Structures are given as C-alpha cells and as structure tokens.
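lol so apparently i was supposed to do this last week
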Amino acid sequence: MENTPLAPKKVSESHTVMTEMIMPNDTNPIGNLMGGYLMRWMDIVAAICAGKHCEANVVTAAVDHISFQKPIRLGDVITLEASVTRAFTSSVEIYVEVFANDIKGQNPRRCNHAYFTFVALDDDRAKPINVPAVLPLSSEEQALYDSAARRREIRLVLSGRVKAKDATEVRKFFLDM
Ligand SMILES: CC(C)(COP(=O)(O)OP(=O)(O)OC[C@H]1O[C@@H](n2cnc3c(N)ncnc32)[C@H](O)[C@@H]1OP(=O)(O)O)[C@@H](O)C(=O)NCCC(=O)NCCS
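anyway here it is w/ coenzyme A bound
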C-alpha cells in the first residue's frame, strides 16, 4: 500500500450515535422491526464511524454473528452506537450496540450488538489503503482492542482467507471441532 497512514486516533474521535423511530413501513406482519432493516441501520452507523476513523471511503467486508434477542416494536425509539475497536492494515473493526425504549423513554433495553469489518479504499475506490491505528484509553476500550485480533482471525478462517491450520490464536478451536 502506498499511502502513509494518519496519526493514531482515539476511539472517541469517531464514536457515532444514530437514532430512529420505528414506523409502520419498518415492521413485519406482527408489528416488530424487521431484522433486515435493523441490519441496514447497523451497517450505516458502522460505516459512518469507520469512514470518520479512516478519513476515507470504506466498504463492508464482513459482519459477525447478529442475534435478535429482544423484539423492537412499532413506535419504539432505537439508538445505535458505533465505536472503532482496532485497526489493522487496511481494515478496521467496528462494534455496534443497539438500544431501544418507547417514545416516553420507558422500558429501556439493549437489543443487539455486532462486530463489522470495513476496508478503507483510495479515492478511486479501487485499492485498499493503510488506516490509522486506534489508541485505546479506557479498560473497556483496551479489552475490545485486545480481543479484536482473535475475532479477526476467526472471521478470516470462516471466510476461507486463512487456513485453520495456519491460524495462531484460534487454531486449536477449529482443529478440535
Ligand atoms: C473488501 C475488499 C475491498 C477486499 O479486497 P481484497 O482484494 O481482498 O483486498 P486484500 O486482500 O488486500 O484485503 C484487504 C483487507 O480486507 C480484509 N478482508 C477481506 N475480506 C475479509 C473478510 N471476509 N473478513 C474480514 N476481513 C476481510 C483483509 O483481511 C485485509 O485487511 P488488512 O489489510 O487490515 O489486513 C473486497 O473484497 C471488496 O470490494 N468486497 C466488496 C465490498 C462491498 O461491496 N461491500 C458492500 C456489500 S455488497
């Protein structure tokens, strides 16, 4: 990669918050938010966060497991929060959390979370470019930073980009399966 990466950045510099109200067009036939709409908003908030951190065009390369733990109803208000956990060479991992409450602020709950991977591209949107490192400050940021290497290796094995036998941190997990 030809570009010199920007200086390391704090997590707070790209932290992104998005709020939506669930409207009739967003729901399934029983009045809950459609999973696909939630995934779309999660992808958007994560992309904004990744774009801010990298100061570049970004594309979604991978989305880790998402489970829908608590229903979100018509009329609820959801807040999506995205933070960068770690940067590698041209990719960044973004952690997204989704919270919901009703319009009066009652029944607050954490509904979903997922890790997204974005790759930064040059201005021609043709080639991956180097991205700035992440400076974790709090113990929570440090824990997410440390565990990101393991999650990255798992997704590279699952996507077939790394052979399980060549994995370092998670080799035993795959070979014992
Ligand atoms: C993501 C993409 C740019 C990677 O291109 P590539 O030619 O494979 O590039 P590279 O091999 O140089 O890999 C670039 C980075 O992507 C990461 N990457 C690629 N596929 C990945 C995957 N499935 N999971 C996690 N990371 C992945 C690599 O690990 C590498 O990260 P690093 O530089 O930090 O080590 C390319 O696959 C692409 O354009 N995909 C489509 C993206 C898109 O359109 N998304 C929207 C949904 S349709």
